[in-house]
Write a structure and sequence with these properties.
- The complex is a heterodimer of chains A (about 130) and B (about 250).
- Chain A is α/β, with parallel strands linked by helices and about 130 residues long.
- Chain A has a single domain (about 5-130), classed as Rossmann fold (3-Layer(aba) Sandwich).
- Chain A is about 45% helix and about 20% strand.
- Chain A has helices at about 20-30, 40-50, 70-80, 95-100, 115-129, and strands at about 10-15, 35-40, 55-60, 85-90, 105-110.
- In chain A, strands 2-1-3-4-5 form a 5-stranded parallel beta sheet, sandwiched between helices.
- Chain A is globular and about 30 Å long.
- Chain B is an alpha+beta fold and about 250 residues long.
- Chain B is about 45% helix and about 20% strand.
- Chain B has helices spanning about 15-45, 55-80, 90-100, 130-145, 170-175, 190-195, 215-225; strands spanning about 90, 110-115, 125, 150-160, 175-185, 230-235, 240-245.
- In chain B, helix 1 packs antiparallel against helix 2.
- In chain B, about 35% of the residues are buried.
- The chains are: A alpha/beta (about 130), B alpha+beta (about 250).
């Protein structure tokens, strides 16, 4: 188990254009003692990520405007300690695999199984300890 | 048998199929997001319910339905031709032989499969497992078309095609050398009405419930993703023939 003091709570940035999806992740992750940040689009996400340096980024691939792959390509080289987990619809699994080459730690398919996601996040945070 | 399709081999109508493909992918994508919300809140609700609460089972049922709906969405993506492929060089005759080992195609006194495979065919670049599924689908259909029993034929051949005869999504990449695989049955044939709708997703003449209608739509999607195409032919009283055309490697 990872123990962090409250001031050093792990920060998770959720990037998804779907507000309902962000709300679920917020609702699920907050009680697990993570600080959850939200961004509804790529441009907003870049700004927030640079300002807050999250430990984990949950990144939706298919977003209007700047998509998840573009966000990953910009942020991953800047934040080698951050774990990027891609969220993928059925149709972009191939893209999700490519993301592993661009520095993503893992990917998870929609509809998201929250318990699987929790395990993936914990696994990544252990690596980052 | 009234009103049977007499015309020569035809393919699914291109414009209609493309529109259906786009529609399927869009619906699958949007439904997937909604399923995410249902799955998420069901899981959250379950977290707050004691292990012995009967509500837990109800929530579990909701999640099981979400999984089924997600699988249906995945099949729509297959039809739309946007699934993930694992392509590698392989031989079509080898794929046919593996298909025939499948338990659902076990031959018995009533049902036989005759193979007529051309020797020395050039290789193809394909997802062998998916092609196998497509061929198995067509053979199961052939068996169902002959409820009294009969012999289905699966044949492979090499052919050279040029110009308008090439119906690949990307003709320059396909070249002019193709392997074709045909599956024939000698059932009663397909009515004109059914023939029109043969490759539509969710269209089915059997009543087996959800999922039954994706057989030919899936075949259509898989072949398209291999830069090939599918043709259907049906004659009254003489059965049906489905033919897949796949570009030969390095042609």
């Amino acid at each position: 188990m990872i123990t962090r003091d409250p001031v050093n709570m792990a920060k998770i940035l959720v990037i998804d254009d779907d507000a309902a999806q962000r709300a679920i992740l917020q609702r699920f992750l907050s009680p697990l003692a993570y600080e959850v940040l939200e961004a509804g689009g790529g441009a907003e996400a870049l700004e927030l990520a640079r300002a807050r340096r999250p430990d984990i980024v949950l990144l939706d691939i298919y977003m209007p405007g700047k998509n998840g792959v573009e966000v990953l390509k910009e942020l991953a080289p800047e934040m080698p300690k951050t774990g990027f987990i891609m969220i993928t619809g059925n149709e972009d699994e191939e893209v999700a695999r490519d993301c592993l080459k661009f520095g993503a730690f893992d990917y998870i398919s929609k509809p998201i199984d929250l318990h699987t996601l929790e395990k993936t996040i914990k696994a990544r945070l252990l690596l980052q300890e | 048998m009234e009103n049977l399709q007499k015309q020569s081999a035809r393919q699914p109508e291109k414009k209609k199929m493309e529109a259906l493909g786009r529609f399927s992918c869009k619906v699958a994508h949007d439904f997937n997001n909604l399923l995410g919300a249902i799955e998420g809140y069901a899981t959250l609700a379950m977290n707050g319910v004691r292990a012995d609460d009967p509500l837990r089972q109800d929530l579990q049922e909701i999640r099981a339905s979400v999984a089924k709906a997600a699988a249906l969405g995945k099949q729509l993506i297959v039809f739309g031709g946007r699934q993930l492929l694992h392509k590698a060089p392989c031989g079509i005759n080898g794929v046919v032989e593996k298909t025939l080992e499948r338990p659902e195609l076990a031959q018995d006194g009533n049902f036989k499969i005759e193979t007529r495979l051309a020797p020395g065919l050039p290789g193809i670049i394909a997802d062998a497992a998916l092609l196998e599924q497509a061929l198995a689908n067509l053979l199961v259909n052939a068996r169902e078309a002959m409820p009294e029993g009969g012999t289905a034929v699966i044949a492979s051949a090499l052919l050279r095609l040029e110009g308008n005869a090439v119906n690949s999504p990307n003709p320059p990449e396909a070249g002019s050398l193709f392997v074709k695989i045909s599956i024939l049955d000698n059932g009663p044939g397909i009515s004109a009405e059914t023939f029109e709708r043969l490759f539509e997703p969710l269209f089915s003449t059997s009543k087996k419930g959800v999922g039954a209608g994706l057989g030919l739509a899936k075949v259509y999607g898989v072949v398209k993703q291999h830069n090939g195409w599918v043709e259907a032919k049906s004659e009254p009283g003489r059965g049906s023939e489905f033919t897949l055309f796949l570009p030969a490697a390095n042609s």
